[in-house]
Amino acid sequence: MLSNYIYIVNFKSNWQLIPPVILKLEEPERRHHTCIEFTVRGFPHPTLRWLYKGQEIQSPYIRTEMDNYQDYLEGCLTFENPTHYDNGNYTLVATNPLGSVSKTVFGHFLEAPPFLDEEDPTPGNDANRPEEDSFGMSIAVGLAGFGCVFLIVMFVLINKYGRRNKFGMKGPVAVISGEEDSASPLHHVNHGIVTPCALDAGPDAVVIGMSRFPVLENPQYFRHGHTCNKPTTHVQHVNRRDIVLKRELGEGAFGKVFLAECYNLSPTKDKMLVAVKTLKDPTMAARKDFQREAELLTNLQHEHIVKFYGVCVDGDPLIMVFEYMKHGDLNKFLRAHGPDSTILVDGHPMQSSGELGLSQMLHVATQIAAGMVYLSSQHFVHRDLATRNCLVGNGLLVKIGDFGMSRDIYSMDYYRVGGHTMLPIRWMPPESIMYRKFSTESDVWSFGVIMWEIFTYGKQPWFQLSNNEVIECITQGRVLDRPRLCPKEVYDLMLGCWQREPQQRLNIKDIQKVLYALGKATPVYLDILG
Ligand code: ADP
Predict the structure, then answer these.
(1) Mean pLDDT score of the chain, rounded to an integer?
(2) Nearest CA to ligand 1 atom 27
């Protein structure tokens, strides 16, 4: 005890006043480092300020993390997913009563991608970003101008000589593993509103309205291949008078989605609950394509793919009848079962009770993987796998539930290119973003993002970044961080899905097996913090 006391007194008496000195301020290592390391000596401990382009940094995505020692401070200016907008000089100013010193270091995080000149619908993000220099802007404007002229010339030529359809899609579009599709309009948008494009398209147009990816001329399903050994697919027709609408479930992009009672659908039940999706005022072409999409859906049957019962095409609107999934889409479900969720009880917000646990998250992921194993066995490439496109039924039953109907409410998840096409870039691998290449392997990448969504209770991937910044991060090799609650084993699976080379990615069968085994293992064995 006494020796302790004497030690402390001696220690104290050794303290002297020291003016601030910046001993270390290190450039972050490009691409890999998201931190500027520093060591500052001084007593009393100096206060630190960081300047970027002469302004004090005030961003929730940049923060100082440090440890205090006897007469020095050691730490990091830490950046959350920095991009080329963050490149530049950073000045550290250290001040104590004996003086003030400063030092500057250049932070270089990512290269500016050469092709970023698209409009960006994500609000708020760019406002936080430093402005591009005007020289760079002039070049960008010049290039954009040249690009516009080029596009107009191309558009005229395509319309004149090569027109397959209004939106420049190639003929049979590949959705077979490994094949390239340079078109791939997932969603078409008209003045910011997602519309069924075939309604105003020519007779050869692909109906994007009912089909986000072009299934119509997919040789897989309509000419040869596994399910197409049958010469024709028999789509079940449902009588309009057998459908009794009960209430609206949601607004789809092309019409409302209703909960309905359907009579004479099942041989064992007189009536059953179904979800019906409607398409109003279709053209002849839209009707034809609607029929073909129904054939596709009829051919996709699996316990983790939402069940398609049939169509009602006599009269207007056209209707597709699906099994009813009580809890709606998985994204909404995850958000409603996360730590931040509140529910309204008598008009007052209350903390919601049922937070999803680890084994439930694994169960959800395993089921989606099972649906994907089936899709890949059919050589079917989905292209838009995300939690918003999965549905949740009773007993945490999860199915892949959307094969082509886009949504208004999730339009923020899509990136508009060229005014028409909407791409879910936050779920897309580099080769899909850069070359519009979609494959079973690109679906695996999206599955990695789905796992990330599940373990963050439905957060939007890269939520802190604008669409342009997301493109930059993904194409330059950055991947999403490990969610706080995610076991290392699961994050390793995500990393296996996010290998840059498509062939190096895990295969969905193996992923499903590992997820299943992890779900069976006692959660104690999972390394939640490691
Ligand atoms: P669209 O694809 O035409 O945009 P959606 O599939 O997005 O339509 O459906 C809109 C909403 O309706 C979804 O958010 C979902 O909650 C609900 N919904 C869609 N299909 C079903 C279903 N089979 N069972 C229950 N709810 C559904």
Answers:
(1) 75
(2) 328
What tokens does 407 get? 């949504």
- pLDDT for the residue numbered 118: 46
> Is 513 marked as a binding-site residue?
no
The residues near 24 (Cβ < 8 Å, ≥ 6 apart) are: 37, 38, 39
C-beta contacts of 145-152 below 8 A and 24+ residues apart: 147/117, 151/418
519 carries a ligand binding annotation: no
Q: Are strands 62-68 and 72-79 parallel, antiparallel or unpaired?
A: antiparallel
Q: How far is the CA of 16 from the centre of ligand 1 (A)?
A: 69
- Determine contact, residues 412/122, Cβ cutoff 8 Å: yes
Mean per-residue pLDDT, 361-369? 97
Name the nearest CA neighbour of 278 among 306, 295, 256.
Answer: 256
Three-class SS of residue 467? helix
| Residue 252 CB–ligand 1 contact under 6 Å | yes
Cis peptide before 317 (omega within 30 of 0): yes
Say whether the peptide bond before residue 339 is cis (omega within 30 degrees of 0): no
Burial classification of residue 128, based on how many CB atoms lie within 10 Å of its CB (0-12 exposed, 13-18 middle, 19 or more buried): middle
Exposure string of 10-23, with b = 16+ CB inside 10 Å and e = fewer, is eeeeeeeebbbebe
User: Alpha helices of 252-384 — where are they, by DSSP H?
Assistant: 284-299, 330-336, 358-377
- Mark out the alpha helices in 35-192 (DSSP H runs): 125-128, 134-161
> Tens digits of per-residue pLDDT, 39-66?
999 999 999 999 998 889 988 888 898 9
H/E element, 48 = strand 47-52
Q: Residue 33, Cβ neighbours under 10 Å: how many?
A: 18
Residues contacting residue 279 through CB under 8 Å, at least 6 positions apart: 196, 209, 210, 254, 255, 286, 290, 317, 318, 319, 320
Quick check: 206 and 289 in contact, CB under 8 A? yes
Tell me the pLDDT tens digit for each residue of 299-328: 899 999 999 999 998 888 899 999 999 999
What CA–CA distance (Å, rounded) separates 254 from 190? 13
Q: Find out whether the beta carbon of 257 lies less than 6 Å from any atom of ligand 1.
A: yes
